[in-house]
Amino acid sequence: MPHKTVIIGGGAAGLGSAGGVKAADPDAEVVVYTEFEDVAYSPCGIPYVHGQEIPDFERLFLATKEQYVQVGIDVHYETSVTGIDTAARTVQVTGEGTVGYDTLIVATGFEYADPGVPGGDLEGLYYVKNIRAAMEWDKVLDSVKRAVVVHATPLGVEMTTSLAHRGIETHLIDPNPWPLADMADADIMAPVEESWRELGVVAHFNTTLKGFVGQGHVSAVATSDGELPCDLVVVATHKTPNARLAAAAGLKIGSTGGIVVDERMATSVPGVFAAGDAVEVPHGLTRVPLQGLTGSHAYAQGKTAGVNAGGGTRAYKAVYVPWGTPAGKWVIGGASFGETTATALGIPYVLGQAQGISRARYYPGVKPVKVKLLAEPGSLRLIGAQMVGQEGIKERADFLAMAVKHGFTFHDLSTMENVYSPAIGALNEPIVVAATNGLDELRKAGKL
Amino acid sequence: MPHKTVIIGGGAAGLGSAGGVKAADPDAEVVVYTEFEDVAYSPCGIPYVHGQEIPDFERLFLATKEQYVQVGIDVHYETSVTGIDTAARTVQVTGEGTVGYDTLIVATGFEYADPGVPGGDLEGLYYVKNIRAAMEWDKVLDSVKRAVVVHATPLGVEMTTSLAHRGIETHLIDPNPWPLADMADADIMAPVEESWRELGVVAHFNTTLKGFVGQGHVSAVATSDGELPCDLVVVATHKTPNARLAAAAGLKIGSTGGIVVDERMATSVPGVFAAGDAVEVPHGLTRVPLQGLTGSHAYAQGKTAGVNAGGGTRAYKAVYVPWGTPAGKWVIGGASFGETTATALGIPYVLGQAQGISRARYYPGVKPVKVKLLAEPGSLRLIGAQMVGQEGIKERADFLAMAVKHGFTFHDLSTMENVYSPAIGALNEPIVVAATNGLDELRKAGKL
Ligand SMILES: Cc1cc2nc3c(=O)[nH]c(=O)nc-3n(C[C@H](O)[C@H](O)[C@H](O)COP(=O)(O)OP(=O)(O)OC[C@H]3O[C@@H](n4cnc5c(N)ncnc54)[C@H](O)[C@@H]3O)c2cc1C
Ligand SMILES: Cc1cc2nc3c(=O)[nH]c(=O)nc-3n(C[C@H](O)[C@H](O)[C@H](O)COP(=O)(O)OP(=O)(O)OC[C@H]3O[C@@H](n4cnc5c(N)ncnc54)[C@H](O)[C@@H]3O)c2cc1C
Questions:
Q1: Which residue, among B15, B336, B387, B420, would best test binding to A if mutated, counting the most A CBs under 10 Å from its CB?
Q2: Of all protein residues, whose CA lies closest to atom 38 belonging to ligand 1?
Q3: Per-residue CA distances from B163 to A375, A428, B196, B198 (Å)
Q4: A394 with A378: CB under 8 angstroms?
Q5: What atom of ligand 2 comes closest to residue B134's alpha carbon?
Q6: Which pairing describes strands B382-389 and B368-375: parallel, antiparallel, or unpaired?
């Protein structure tokens, strides 16, 4: 009999897992359960369809249902798993009863944090996730005049920009003094806030959510600063691990609420793996557990969980978290952490900063690229980076995460070679300038 | 008396040097000699003004003459140095006679290799370098119907694309079977050749130059494959070090014809430094000396030479040569070397290749990115990389050169985290896919 793996979840982690199992053991039986009507669509594209940068939802689907059948991945759609019995190696499935497994992968993903205020049952509150729901909400958007986005999380930032692009009067509320305040620094976000103003967005910072107001349908959002009338609310509260099933089954849960896993993505219970937004993994430098990372992390973790569940060997290492996203007319990004997080964690750092450019100064389309590098005092090893610019932010973020991981110093980055070609890169790479400025500051201060 | 540094050359290396001296010793006397009317313009932009991507020449100037005066750099324009006496620490200067120095920096740059064929004295042969000359040639281009570009060097590739963009019927001749054959692989250049065809470029490969034909003004280029009638020839032969002065003064010259320097950019003669295209520096892996690198290298070398000439300490390390340039409708680039060079040097390698994408598959403007990685068999340490794509080639080339330098393996690159955000990056970074494919191939072949 083939080895059977059951996967709970049809998101990036679940499908990465399914592929991983098949890669390690092509004969394995793989069953995927999802509550949704579809797998293999990219939720990440949804904000951009709403913003009309992407013309339709159809192209967000990555593969047809038949393709999964063909590769031997048996997806059960609109099917809930309601319990796990790790001793019996079975799961309880709505409409299917008790189903056995040899190995189990829990990839139940994330949920938006409950806003915890009155009015949560009103119509007109949009939690962006399921693509079928998004297609319906998109029709609604055509008649929305005023919208409120609750919290400047990554999704909140994307949706704010998208709704503004859509021509909707968009208000953003957040309890912090600037957007993305728990990951990005204020100076990185300042140009984003300015470009939002140009787009007509009204941002309300230092403002807490008090409730949703309305008769049946939401008509306003109550805040610490008064009521904001609106036709629609995008609830983009922070992501929390959806680990209820796992916790009920006795899997060890960590301090963030995410399932605890080792480098093999194995949970505390033999035969049970977990991956994606339902788990927590350590930050490479601080070892602080992180939850709610990205689809890219979920996919890679899924692959690792799947390979190991399928009898192979693969390790998933601590993370250095390159990140990036368009925001207003800018692209922001970074790796590891910025000043805000370093300060909050009490991690000492020295800074190297530069206001660089993306192409030759004289080449049409040249854009500013601001780079901030944080290094450990003394060793000058890179411990974090943040950027705001347009071109090449994603590639630089990927690189800087590797630079943190491999312990590159300001010296390494300051002497790094770079491409100079007017249409694609400036004489001085902004990362090099930032590291060089960092060294110059230290020299001036007599600390080098 | 202040320490006096004489710099021969007002290009990237010469001006980088001047800045380096002043950084190390703000009181130093710095005199720069150049044969040209200007310093501090970017020759790199010239092809793009000809191609009308950049609207005018004025913006290629980086600083005004007054700005150099203000920072205490004394530039002597249109002034030739005709000899160096390293024993007396003097140079011979046209119109100035014998001029003393404490330290000397030779930054005499490159020359295009003499084509060595009859007709080299005809009018209508354009050697792209000096900006004043370029401004005159740009007027000539308005009436040029048919042009021939001699040799598919980096500048030849840029000028071919530019002349085609300008609407000129452009022919390219080169003795090799594909463009940039001594640095780029055939498969990397294939899409470029196709996009040139779309632009109406006629490329003549495996074709040698026999001479320039005409009465006073060039009217055709004679080749091994017959005559090509034309109104203008761009002579973009390969770059050679302009090291005549240095050689005559007894400075040690290397196998490439470039001035030999150490990590301080010091030549074989005490008190004399050199930098830029006039020198040769070792490749980081092969230690093979390289000449004719880029303006970015020239600038960084100049800075090192200047700091050391000014009494400071700075090292310039062996190079891993990130490179990149637009070519046709593509951007090509890489680091270290590709298959062609590895094969020519007898360096064994294993390959990891991927045809990736620059954004989410469904995001408008997504472009293919082909990545080829070469690794040392066994250790699987990266030894070279080549790419063809559009977005993010320059940033990836910079990163890959650092990856070669720091000995990253296919394993490191295959497990690297990456940003996934639909508008700026795909779920799977092409570099990661290439490394993963390389590992998969090895596994299939039982070599891992
Ligand atoms: C609008 C939006 C935009 C995003 N943008 C980006 C982006 O730009 N870049 C990026 O990297 N990531 C992005 N993400 C990804 C996201 O932030 C997560 O990291 C990712 O979705 C996590 O994947 P996952 O598979 O762990 O969980 P989820 O995507 O949350 O999937 C969970 C799966 O589990 C299933 N499930 C849960 N409970 C049960 C149960 N009891 N029984 C059966 N099935 C169950 C669900 O049906 C679902 O299929 C975006 C997500 C959204 C929603
Ligand atoms: C058209 C063009 C496009 C380019 N594109 C790029 C690009 O996209 N990216 C890139 O990185 N680089 C580019 N380059 C740069 C180039 O390839 C070289 O690497 C760079 O110019 C080398 O700088 P250098 O200062 O060493 O020498 P050069 O630029 O050759 O300067 C030599 C200097 O020495 C002076 N000189 C020489 N002999 C004497 C003498 N006897 N007396 C007095 N002065 C003397 C000359 O007047 C000149 O000022 C381009 C160059 C050109 C011409």
A1: B420
A2: A108
A3: 46, 28, 11, 14
A4: no
A5: 1
A6: antiparallel
Distance CA A162, CA A47 (A): 6
Does A44 reach chain B within 8 Å, measured CB to CB?
Answer: yes
Helices A154-165/A186-198 angle, 10° precision: 20
B4-39+77-110+240-309 and B323-444: identical CATH topology: no
Instruction: Measure CB to CB from residue A424 to each of B321, B393, B429 and give the nearest one.
Output: B393
The percent of residues above 90 in pLDDT, for chain B, comes to: 97
Burial level of A182, CB count in 10 A (0-12/13-18/19+)?
Answer: exposed
What would you measure as the largest C-alpha separation in chain B, in angstroms? 72
Distance CA B136, CA B115 (A): 23
Distance CA A347, CA A377 (A): 10
Q: What is the rounded CA–CA span in Å between residue A154 and residue A350?
A: 27
Beta bridge partners of B215: B217
Range B125-237 has CATH code 1.20.120.1770:
no
Question: For testing the chain B interface, which of A158, A264, A405, A419 should be mutated: the one with the most B CBs within 10 Å?
Answer: A419
Q: Where are the domains of chain A?
A: 4-39+77-110+240-309, 125-237, 323-444
What CATH architecture does domain B4-39+77-110+240-309 belong to?
3-Layer(bba) Sandwich (3.50)
* Residue A26 forms contact with B (CB below 8 Å): no
Q: Is the CB of B152 under 6 A from ligand 2?
A: no
pLDDT (0 to 100) of residue A63: 76
Judging by DSSP bridges, how do beta strands B368-375 and B350-357 pair with one another?
Answer: antiparallel
Burial B419-442, CB ≥16 within 10 A → b, else e: bbbbbbbbbbbbbbbbbbbbbebb
The edge-to-edge listing of strands for the beta sheet with A146-150 is A125-126, A232-235, A146-150, A169-173, A202-204
What one-letter code names the amino acid at B150? V
pTM > 0.90: yes
B179 lines ligand 2 (CB under 6 A): no
Report the distance separating Cα B86 and Cα B104, nearest Å. Answer: 9
Q: What is the pLDDT of residues A32-84, one digit of tens each?
A: 999 999 987 889 999 999 999 999 999 998 878 888 999 999 999 999 999 99
Check pLDDT > 80 for residue B63. no
B263 touches chain A (CB under 8 A): no
Please say whether the beta carbons of B352 and B438 come within 8 A. Answer: yes
Q: Is the dihedral of CA A84, A88, A90, A93 positive or negative?
A: negative
CATH class of A323-444: alpha beta
CA-B419 nearest atom, ligand 1: 11
ipTM computed for the complex = 0.96
Instruction: Return d(Cα B195, Cα B193) in angstroms, integer.
Output: 5
- Token pair for A146: 């005023």
Cβ B18 under 6 angstroms from ligand 2: no
| Dihedrals phi, psi of A440, to nearest 5 degrees | -60, -45
